[in-house]
Specification:
Layout (H helix, E strand, L loop, with lengths): L18 H8 L5 E2 L11 H8 L14 H11 L6 E4 L2 H12 L5 E6 L4 H8 L3 E6 L7 H7 L4 E7 L11 H8 L7 E5 L24 E6 L12 E5 L1 H7 L10 H12 L1 H25 L2 E2 L6 E5 L4 H10 L2 E2 L1 E2 L8 E5 L3 H18 L7
Parallel strand pairs: 1-11, 3-4, 3-5, 5-6, 6-7
Antiparallel strand pairs: 2-8, 7-8, 9-10, 10-13, 12-13
Helix pairs in contact: 2-9, 3-9, 4-5, 10-12
This protein binds pyridoxal-5'-phosphate (PLP).
Length: 369
Amino acid sequence: MKWKEAILTLKPYQPGKSIQDVKKQYGLEHITKLASNENPFGCSPEVQEAVAAVGDSFALYPDGYAAKLRTGVADHLNVKETQLIFGNGSDELIQIISRSLLSPGTNTVMATPTFPQYRHNAVIEGAEVREVPLVAGSHDLAGMLDAIDQNTAVVWLCTPNNPSGKYINNRELAGFLDNVPNDVLVVLDEAYYEYVEAADHPDTISWLNNYPNLIVLRTFSKIYGLASLRVGYGAAGEDIIQKLEPAREPFNVNTLGQVAALAAISDQAFVEKAKKANREGLNQYYDFCREEGLDYYESQGNFILIDFKVDSNLVFQFLLERGYIVRSGSQLGFPTSVRVTVGSKEQNAGIIELMKEFLKVNRQQRVEL
Ligand SMILES: *Cc1c(COP(=O)(O)O)cnc(C)c1O
């Protein structure tokens, strides 16, 4: 068959281990998954109520315009409703942007390591991928500017960056945007925006008026705790939204997702609580890393990348057999680190005890890299 050549080079997404599989394989009763940056506190209780009230209207298509959710998000962000596009997760928005702008003959610029879906979608569209290595976990914005040429269609900035947790501050972002050509779309993937505490973090939504080539992506999957329902959104100037809309499937965001997301964004007290608990959780990991002399990046997200200076799969396997699922850095471009999602206080304490045990057992095997 006449497959696109690029398709033949790609592998399907490898999901993290499922809780059921791990229970069975290792005969464990309790498994704690700290692998996908999900919210350990679930979602707002108001979501349960709102979803229950949907009743059994499952035979009907969802509202293809997501009108109520649109109003809720527009009010929350203080943008016009016509400045928003909704996706089946922000993953789908990455796909829509790629379909709309990338093709053979174009190129796209991104950091590495970063969120893998930018590259994946660009390859499917046949675009050239230009990856600029992170420097100390941060985007090399000067290097990315250098990589842009007249064939560049999209630049991806992930901030805070998954998996390093580092963010781009006001001054750095302004310096970058002021130097990107106007006909290059800059995508700011802010999946962890609501977790950020840094005082010099840009309020990017208020920048949309100044930068007509900017789109900000956010999601209900992380702090809002709705990963299973698949809702994300993009905010940009009306012109960008109008151009992207035809590439969106008409009924891409399901009814339960729309209802749940609206309830979730209305409960900012829940968000504040999750944010505060996350900060305390990060401090548990920082204390542990300092005590043990481990390198880590200060994180503005709900995850932390810790360098054990051994093959990351050894750490991963040690924790897995004892009931904790994390992400091995070998799959993320950091072969001696693991990425741990910040859990509840008890979950963090539990995994930290095991990581201490791992260090005791493996101290001898540690290699200098
Ligand atoms: C989790 C994540 C997403 C995907 O979010 P969905 O809305 O669930 O598709 C996008 N970008 C980054 C950087 C993420 O970590």
